[in-house]
Write a structure and sequence with these properties.
Distance between the termini: 37 Å
Shape: elongated
Order of helices and strands: HHHEEHEEEEHHEEH
Oligomer: single chain
Helix content: 25-40%
Radius of gyration: 27 Å
Length: 323
C-alpha cells in the first residue's frame, strides 16, 4: 500500500533534481516521516491532556462550591455518595503522557495514463532519473542499513493545484513490472514529471503548485468478461486486436469514479485511449478483447505538506549538528 512517505520521497526526488541538491534516500525519508508523525501525535496527546486537566479542575471547583446540585434531588431515603479521590480519575493513558514533552492518481479532471505511449506500447520505460543513528537521530547520511526491500508495480502522478483547489493532470507514468521501491519511485517520479509526451516537462517555478500521488498495484486477476470488475476498487489493463494491430491501455482504480463513468463508459474510454476509434455501441464487436483487473490504493501529498515536512527536517538536522 502506498504511503505518505512514498509521496514525500517523490517530491524529494523532483525538487532535488530541479534545485540541484542531494536528495534524501527512501529510508531516510521514512525515518524522518516517522519522527514528524510522532511529533504530531504527541502534540495531540498533550492537547488532550490539557483538556482533561481543565475538566478535572472544573470538578474540583464544583466540590468547593456552597451548594451541590445533587442535594436538590428528592428521595425517600438519604443518599450517601462516597467522594472519588481526584487521583483515581486519572486515566492510565493520561498518567503515562503527563511527563512526555512533545517534539509535531491521479485526482484530476483528466484520466491517468499508463505511460506517454501506453496506448500503443508496453510499459517499463525509464528516463533521466538519476551513521550511527538512533530513534531520535536520523541524519542526512543515515540509512546505511536499509529496510527490507519491497517490489511493486507502481504509478506516479503529478497534478497542478489551482488557487481554488482544482487539480489538473500534469503527468502520469508507471509500470506493471515489479520494481524495488527506492529506485522505482525515484525513477518514475522523474519520468512522470519530464517524459509524459502529453505535457511539457515540469519546471522549477511550477513546483509550489504541484501535488503528487503514488499507487502501488496488487491483485492482478484476469476478468471473466470485460465488465467483471468493480467501480472504485479495480483498475483495468486491456489489450485487443483491431484491423490486425494490437492495442493496450490502462486506467488506475480511481479514474472511473472521478470521471463519473459507468463500467461500459469506462471500458469504451479506455479502448479509445488505446487507439480504437469505433462507435461506443460497437465495442463488443472488437475481437480478442482481454481485461485484467487489479487493485491499488492511492496516497497523495501536496507541495505545502512536503515543504512543511522538509523545513522541519532541515531544522532537526541543524539542531542535531549543534548538539
Amino acid at each position: 500500500m502506498a504511503s505518505v512517505a512514498h509521496c514525500l520521497y517523490c517530491f524529494e526526488a523532483l525538487a532535488a533534481d530541479l534545485e540541484k541538491y542531494e536528495p534524501l534516500n527512501l529510508t531516510q525519508v521514512q525515518n524522518w516521516w516517522s519522527r514528524y508523525s510522532l511529533r504530531g501525535e504527541l502534540t495531540g496527546a498533550q492537547d488532550k491532556l490539557e483538556e482533561n486537566s481543565k475538566a478535572l479542575q472544573n470538578g474540583a471547583d464544583l466540590e468547593d462550591g456552597d451548594e451541590d446540585p445533587l442535594e436538590e434531588v428528592d428521595s425517600d431515603e438519604d443518599q450517601v455518595v462516597a467522594p472519588v479521590p481526584r487521583s483515581d480519575l486519572r486515566l492510565p493513558s493520561i498518567s503515562r503522557l503527563q511527563n512526555v514533552s512533545p517534539s509535531t492518481a491521479s485526482t484530476s479532471s483528466t484520466p491517468s495514463s499508463l505511460s506517454t505511449t501506453s496506448s500503443q506500447a508496453a510499459l517499463g520505460n525509464t528516463s533521466k532519473s538519476s551513521s550511527n543513528s538512533s530513534f531520535f537521530s536520523f541524519s542526512r547520511h543515515s540509512g546505511s542499513s536499509p529496510a527490507r526491500k519491497q517490489e511493486h508495480p507502481l504509478f506516479v502522478t503529478w497534478n497542478t493545484v489551482s488557487s481554488r483547489g482544482y487539480k489538473s493532470l500534469r503527468g502520469c507514468i508507471g509500470t506493471f513490472d515489479p520494481l524495488e521501491l527506492a529506485s522505482g519511485l525515484k525513477s518514475y517520479a522523474l519520468t512522470a514529471a519530464y517524459d509524459d509526451s502529453r505535457f511539457s516537462p515540469i519546471s522549477l517555478p511550477e513546483l509550489p503548485s504541484l501535488s503528487t500521488s503514488v499507487t502501488l498495484l496488487t491483485a492482478f486477476t484476469p476478468a471473466s468478461d470485460p465488465l467483471d470488475w468493480t467501480l472504485g476498487i479495480h483498475g483495468l489493463r486491456i489489450s485487443f486486436t483491431h484491423h490486425g494491430k494490437r492495442y493496450g491501455a490502462t486506467y488506475l482504480p480511481d479514474v472511473a469514479v472521478e470521471q463519473g463513468w459507468t463500467k461500459e463508459e469506462t471500458l469504451v474510454s479506455l479502448m479509445r485511449k488505446a487507439g480504437w476509434s469505433g462507435r461506443s455501441g460497437e465495442w463488443k464487436k472488437v475481437g480478442d478483447l482481454k481485461v485484467v483487473r487489479y487493485q491499488g490504493k492511492k496516497e497523495s501529498v501536496d507541495y505545502k505538506e512536503w515543504k512543511a515536512w522538509r523545513e522541519w527536517v532541515e531544522k532537526e538536522e541543524q539542531r542535531e549538528m549543534d548538539m
